[in-house]
Amino acid sequence: MSNTKQILAMLKSRASGDDELFYSIALQVAASEARQGRKTTATEIREAVQDARGETGQSQGVAIPFGTPKGDLADLLELKKPRFKLGDVVLSDSIRDPLQELIREQLRRDWLREHGKIPNKRVLFVGPPGSGKTMTAEALARQLNLPLYVIRLESLITRFMGETAGKVRLVFDEVSRQRGVYLFDEFDAVGGDRSATNDVAEMRRVLNTFLQLMEEENSTDSLVVGATNHPALLDSALLRRFDLVLEFSPPTPDQVKTLIKSNIRPMKYPNIAWKKVCEAAENLSQSEIVRAVEDAVKAAILDERDRVTTQDLTRRLNDRNLMREAFRQRRL
User: Fold this and answer.
1) Is residue 59 part of a domain?
2) What is the pTM of this model?
3) pLDDT top residue among 312 and 81
């Protein structure tokens, strides 16, 4: 992009109130100056951007207005407040290490762009229900101080020719406009294999549109997260569109214990029968286990107790299992 086009783009972004794009273009100018040997000018531009953002030290990104989607987007995107930190999620090292690197790249994305690189921003989570995929997406959003938008698949996928592909494009237009974490849960509904015998031409068009939009670059570096319980159903072309593909497993008994211990504070928990507790937690997701522990802790506080018992935990875990069963019956 020439200097003239960059100046015009900056003026247009400023006029439209898109500060994120304005700063991104300014940093592109700084990178261009650095590549041409004018490092002092590049440094001055970068420092001016940091001053304008009110940042100190490493770049942490622009403050994000957590706005509720409006207009056509209101039916497509659900704004969720992230409840979990990454430390709340029990993850194996094979998942935690790549996520930490992803977070580091996102937090220092301006520095990467100044050197002609872009951070990883397309992630696919695969694994069975209850393995922590959605919880991890929430934790990523909270760690990066970004809004979490969950795509409503029931509104995205329609029976009208061409409408679904148009809605997918509308979502990606928002990805390019508003920095955030965008979660496509049950991703196989959109990314199903194009060669599947039960496929229809409309869904092939939807997937082709999705693949094209995944390739498009944008200045916001929004995270697009796909989550699926059925990776075998996904089209093989999707694999090269994602920067990371991480495989989740259900929490093991040891991970259940770790999860409970990290969320039971400030209560004491002497003489817990962990075998009974882990059996009660079987089939529950990490977020359901956390909520059950929180319910047990709140009950102890209201009872004016300083400890949580095995019965407290198993009762709340069993309640969560009953809720899950009631929901499953409703869907049958």
Assistant:
1) no
2) 0.69
3) 312
